[in-house]
Amino acid sequence: MNSTSTTTTRNFEVHDSKVLDWAKDIIERSASSRLIQKEIINAVDRNAIWRGEECLNLLAPEAPTSQTVRQLLASEVGTRAAEGHIGPTQRWFSGTKHIDEIESLCVELLKKVFKSNYADHRLVASMIGNMTVYAALTKPGDNILTIAQPFGGHSSNRYDGPAGIRGLNIYDVPMDPVDLVVNMDDFVKVAREVKPKLVTLGASMTLFPFPLKEMSEIVNEWGGKIFFDGAHQLGLIGGGQFQDPLNEGACIMTGSAGKTFSGPQSGIIVWNDPELTEPISDTIFPALAATHQVNRVAALAASAAEFLAFGEEYMAQIVANAKALAKALYERGITVLGSHKGFTETHQVILDVKQFGGGLDVAHKLAEANIITNKNLLPSDKPEDWDYPSGLRIGTIEITRLGMKEAEMDSIAEYIVSVLEGRDTTESIRKQVINMRSAYKKLHYCFD
Ligand SMILES: *Cc1c(COP(=O)(O)O)cnc(C)c1O
Which residues form the Serine hydroxymethyltransferase-like domain (predicted)? Predict the structure, then answer.
């Protein structure tokens, strides 16, 4: 080897180099490509057993999909190309008559679930939905207000995401660090000064509703609009368990199909005003989606049909479980945000775990006990705390779909506290979790 060290000659990687080396080693060691392919399948199978059968998945943005939805994701139609708008004239390719049927069923089902005049089915991610809104409804240099990350804001609406790529000037929506809602007095001041074109309400940490009516009355003074990024709350909204943004003053809403909505991971966008239809649709195609995965569209339509039948009951139980889990943790001495106002009105429970070593440490410790959560920034965290925040975010989507109710939340709280306080060995808690999970195999709120 010459004098240059391996670290400087090596290409820069953002990924963990140890993990990439593991993969390189497998690829080099395997006697044939077929064996490499087998390694991929093995990893998928290991995940399916661990995460699919042995864990309590409490990640707030995750939802298990029904077998029907999963089968549709692997369907033949996923190999077909169908650019453009639905119908025989506005597509580039022919042979799409059945694809038109699938896509129109999807669009009409989404309109029905969200009681909206318009919906689009072509967003391969909710990030693309947010990019669509910024591209269609703003110009570079416009002012917008969005929520900062320590208060639950999401990168898609900040400088490092689509809003930043659009070249917007981003100001913070003032939030109350204790009540975890918009501080209306400060909002009125900032908004009247900055006169934002859009106010984006997008929150990945979300416990309580937003004062949408009051906020829209203010921004209407200069023709500003409210954009509701309901990535997390989408299912709760469709199931009538949260506020109804399009009816309360938001002009457009995006959301993740794979969070509370419990469909295939992708995005949804809905609106009512016919004047938005052209700018939004022209941005989706041809700017941000071409082949948009028709297998995913079929799966999305199928999950919307499940949602029509079971959404209300399913979403109500998700919220009831979150409240029960929050209370059970609080009663065991854990600091739970929003404890002075009923903990939560969503699928989320937010803990302050600073005293247990912070969110990163705690999330890894819980994962060793097969309890999957994520580290989370809290309003009290500073920018330098980014990688090591004080909070932990918990969600009740998956455990609810597996049929768990309030009584089971008590057992889950007990496992979590046992890990946090080191009351029992991780190995022992892990065994108890696997044992508990083995009684909940069937997926509820679907036709399977
Ligand atoms: C998760 C999330 C997104 C991105 O959604 P994807 O479907 O993962 O692209 C956007 N905004 C908010 C507030 C989110 O929480």
Answer: 38-416
